[in-house]
Write a structure and sequence with these properties.
The complex is a heterodimer of chains A (285) and B (469). By secondary structure, chain A is of the alpha/beta class. Chain A has 15 helices and nine strands. Classes of the chains: A alpha/beta (285), B alpha/beta (469). Bound molecules: adenosine-5'-triphosphate (ATP) and magnesium ion.
């Protein structure tokens, strides 16, 4: 599994590879938690690409409802049909007709379940939804079927690999957790992150890249509102590459730190605690 | 074949495994982890899927099914170690099997010790799990030759870690080839500490021939993962609250410049030269105010992780109080008031204190008796009933005389004396901790989280009732 994920450009930590493997073996959903930008979404993409499956993604947000997650009737199309058929055919016949699969708009959950080929289903940021939605999801994930009153039961033809991600903005219900394997993704260890950065910015010299992840580590050790994630490390590496930087000294850091710290107050803290500590060009000379 | 606590239970006990997994689940539940039937069933299911040869896979697979939040995962790590260590150990104790101590290590030279340090650091950097356990045992054997155990495993773990110079923070003073120079991975450090703990427990078992009581995991064990620098911001927040509280109480000494007093007699005398017209006002010299807070901070081995916390408390206090003198100590004391007054950056402060500001540290063991007498000599004339003395330390004397009598003299001269102890109360007066001897003369606080620091701050800012002494 580890090699497979690596082959599609994702460098998994030890537990990541193992849990992904177990998920495919046991067919259990995985709940992936961890700070923003540590590669939760990316893991799902990599898994799909490695397994040669389609990735179906349900991005959650506040107020997400069943219509957007499961299915919706294509109202417009139904209306057209009703108008077209209004003459002649009886109401019963029309009704039977317009609640057929043809008029169903499948949303991600339905798509994933009804797919002919097994997919990877990513339910991203589940913590943004409410408990009611969670309960619905739970049902879908335990029975792998969806009941549509007008149409009957839609049963899964294949079994998707399901990943749920959460940024911990609220506690998920015990019931949901019970159903899942759990994977905690943290900021990677220095060497691991170095490898990731070098994968995404191979032209950056080893020394600068190493310095970069060290500095990132220092910044993360501060108590910031939004610590830099792997995504920021990669962005920073690319920025430094564009600037043709040879070393990360105080000046370079001050000029480019907005790439890795976004919050106004964080920037002050970082400039103060990290910026001043890096060698300034004068010291080196 | 001697049982290996690192390996999952051996094949022939396999039929006993479900029972053991159930017990593990039970222990987790006792520690507050929500483990239900479906978790247990999943645990059995995943164990079918993994290879038995990898201890890491065994642990990760169980973790993925039994621990479903970051907090639970922490607890799982601790319980897992304790559980599999204890059960294998118990079996070994029953059969009277003992693992030989690495006896040849007894006469380690300084050079060999340095080599051991390097080897351990390299193993941590490279994450070589396999080597780590042996290295942990060697480290314990080596250091138990050099100093007495404190009697508290958590304390010994920290002492050894510190003696090995293993830190997550970069140590730029070390030579470039030293793996510790760039700082060691935090999780590897944590795993190594867990191994030390387990090995220390093992030798305790071997000494006493019985198992230590399974104590509920202390909050301390759970609280450790946050890095000291993350704590720093929290400490500053708490002390900033303190500052606000003081300001509203009007206790902070601001604006005395405006109240400079004109010295009438000297002004008149000077005016004689200008025909009696007071052209030049003569001010009374401003008497330097005596410091009101004295802080003594233990930066020794046994409080390593706490020292950083304490130094940041000290740093924050200096931000708040101008009339303050600070001392750090291990075996002897050194005053660091100047450093704090001239350095605003915490990292720089701690570097200077551990570096050139030179804490007098010959043996590395705290000598409280000596610290009290040196302190008394240095501040005797200055101490006054409105002064507050704060000691930050674990009150572990390494078997030396606590000299509570001298401490009593200090407390008698000062208005209030506080003690902040970085160990949970559970550990107080256990092993070489002598906090009880001092507690009769001061108010002692358990202080290793910012929440506890807040309690202390509340006490500190309670107005001094002058009669209450
Ligand atoms: N192990 C890894 N190997 C390769 N690239 C990685 C790895 N982890 C993260 N990345 C990269 O880091 C970036 C951030 O990852 P991603 O968007 O998946 O994070 P996330 O955890 O989903 O964040 P959020 O919580 O903000 O949704 C991506 O560009 C991804 O390519
Ligand atoms: Mg994401």
């Amino acid at each position: 599994m580890a090699t497979g994920l690596r082959s599609v450009g994702y460098l998994p930590g030890e537990s990541t590879a193992l849990v992904s493997y177990l998920a495919t073996k046991l067919g259990k959903p995985v709940l992936v938690e961890g700070p923003a930008g540590v590669g939760k979404t990316e893991l799902a993409k990599a898994l799909a690409s490695f397994l040669g499956r389609e990735l179906v993604r349900l991005q959650c947000y506040e107020g997400l409802d069943e219509a957007k997650a499961l299915y919706e009737w294509n109202y417009r199309k139904q209306l057209l049909r009703i108008q077209a058929e209004a003459t002649g055919t009886g109401w019963d016949a029309v009704q039977e007709d317009i609640f057929g699969e043809e008029f169903l708009l499948a949303r991600p959950l339905m798509t994933a379940i009804a797919s002919e080929e097994p997919v990877v289903l990513l339910i991203d940021e589940i913590d943004k939804t409410d408990q009611e939605f969670e309960a619905m999801l739970l049902e879908v994930l335990s029975d792998f079927q969806i009941s549509i009153p007008e149409l009957g039961l839609v049963k899964a033809r294949t079994h998707p690999v399901v990943l749920l991600t959460s940024n911990n903005s609220r506690e998920l219900t015990e019931a949901l957790k019970r159903r899942c394997l759990y994977l905690w993704l943290d900021y990677p260890a220095l060497e691991h992150e170095l490898e990731i950065v070098r994968l995404h910015a191979p032209e950056l010299s080893e020394t600068v890249a190493r310095r970069l992840v060290e500095v990132i580590g220092m910044v993360r050790a501060l108590d910031l509102k939004k610590p830099p994630s792997i995504a920021e490390s990669i962005d920073w590496a690319r920025a430094l590459l564009l600037l043709g930087v040879k070393d990360i000294d105080a000046d370079v850091f001050m000029e480019t730190m907005s790439v890795i710290v976004k919050h106004r107050t964080d920037m002050d803290v970082v400039a103060d605690r990290v910026g001043l500590k890096l060698r300034s060009p004068a010291d080196v000379a | 074949m001697s049982p290996d606590p690192d390996a999952p239970p051996p094949e022939e006990h396999l039929e006993g495994l479900p029972a053991r997994i159930l017990e593990l689940g039970e222990e987790l539940r006792r520690e507050g982890v929500a483990v239900g039937t479906s978790e247990m069933l999943d645990a059995f299911a995943v164990l079918e899927e993994i290879s038995w040869t990898s201890q890491e896979d065994f642990r990760e697979a169980l973790a993925a099914t039994l621990a479903k939040s970051q907090e639970d995962r922490r607890v799982f790590e601790l319980v897992f170690d304790r559980f599999f260590f204890r059960s294998v150990e118990l079996a070994a104790a029953r059969e009277g099997i003992r693992e030989g101590d690495a006896a040849s290590l007894e006469e380690l030279s300084e050079q060999e010790l340095e080599a051991l340090r390097a080897e351990i650091a390299a193993a941590l950097r490279d994450g070589s799990e396999g080597a780590m356990r042996d290295l942990a045992r060697m480290a314990i054997a080596a250091f138990s030759r050099r100093q007495e155990g404190s009697g508290v495993i958590g304390v010994d773990v920290q002492r050894i870690r510190r003696a090995l110079g293993l830190r997550a923070e970069p140590q730029p003073d070390l030579p470039p080839e030293d793996p510790r120079r760039d700082g060691l991975p935090r999780d590897a450090l944590r795993r190594f500490e867990a191994l030390l703990r387990r090995e220390l427990e093992r030798s305790q078992v071997e000494r006493t021939g019985s198992l230590p009581p399974a104590r509920p995991l202390g909050e301390l064990d759970r609280a450790l993962p946050s890095g000291p620098l993350a704590d720093l911001a929290a400490v500053h927040r708490v002390v900033a609250q303190l500052r606000r509280r003081l300001a509203t109480q009007g206790m902070q000494n601001r604006g005395h410049r405006r109240h400079a007093h004109v010295d009438v007699r000297r002004t008149m005398r000077a005016s004689l030269q200008t025909g009696g017209v007071p052209v030049v006002l003569k001010y009374r010299p401003r008497r330097p105010k005596r410091p009101e807070i004295y802080v003594l901070c233990d930066v020794s081995t046994s409080v390593t992780s706490a020292s950083v916390f304490f130094l940041s408390v000290l740093h924050a206090l200096h931000d708040t109080f101008r009339k303050m003198r600070s001392f750090v100590f291990i075996e002897r004391i050194s005053e660091v008031t100047d450093i704090f007054e001239h350095e605003r950056n915490f990292k720089a402060v701690s570097e200077r204190i551990s570096g050139d500001a030179g804490v007098a540290d010959i043996s590395g063991y705290t000598d409280y008796g000596r610290v009290w007498s040196e302190f008394l000599v240095q501040v005797e004339d200055d101490l006054h009933p409105r002064a507050t003395v704060i000691v930050l330390g674990d009150a572990r004397t390494n078997g030396r005389d606590p000299r509570a009598d001298i401490f009593a003299q200090i407390a008698a001269r000062a208005g209030r004396t506080f003690w902040l102890n970085p160990e949970p109360r559970l550990y107080w007066n256990y092993g070489d901790s002598v906090i009880a001897a001092y507690e009769q003369y001061c108010t002692a606080f358990e202080c290793w989280t910012t929440a506890q620091l807040e309690d202390f701050v509340r006490a500190l800012t309670r107005p001094v009732i002058s009669a209450a002494r």
